[in-house]
Design goal:
Helix content: 40-55%
Radius of gyration: 16 Å
Strand content: 15-25%
Number of helices: 6
Largest sheet: 4 strands, parallel
Number of domains: 1
CATH architecture: 3-Layer(aba) Sandwich
Distance between the termini: 40 Å
Structural class: alpha/beta
CATH topology: Rossmann fold
CATH superfamily: Alpha/Beta hydrolase fold, catalytic domain
CATH class: Alpha Beta
Order of helices and strands: HEHEHHEHEH
Strand order of the largest sheet: 1-2-3-4
Length: 189
Amino acid sequence: MQSPSAGRLGEHYLGQIAATANIVVPKVLDYLQTVPDVDMSRVAITGVSTNGFIALQAVAADQRLHAASVMAACGDYQRFLRYSSMGMAGRPLTLDPDYAKWVDAQAVINHPRRVVHAAVLMVNRVKDPLIPISCADETDRALRPAYAAAGGGNRYRYVRIEEQEGHGFGPKENAENLAWMRAWMLGKR
């Protein structure tokens, strides 16, 4: 994550995620609404890694997304920047105040009620050096009570994969994703 300074760490990366989630995905949804064969009550988004960040943030940005599978990503951007091997790798993080404010405004953990309209699955590997499990766990700590308060506890699931190391998408993530989408998009719960 090259940045002009440590105080702006990840600015381009997170900016691209925000632009895609907040501008591009809604434009795609606008188009889909014009297609007669598209059932807008069955529109979902799936993403792994960067696209997982986009998927979670897009759900927060647009209520037309009814389900999401978010894999190898999180909604805690400050913790991600500090603990990821792509960021500070656990060293202290001091962001420029205006940038820190922007990062906090984008982070789903700070606005968990924005996603409770959708059925959200999060799948993370415990031993992922790029997406530290602590940022996924913190996202879970924010989303779980928000879903419970909204009466949609069964619309949220968090899966921690212990046995697979590294960053990526494998058979376990694929199985979780397919089961989630079948349940929420095809009504086979």
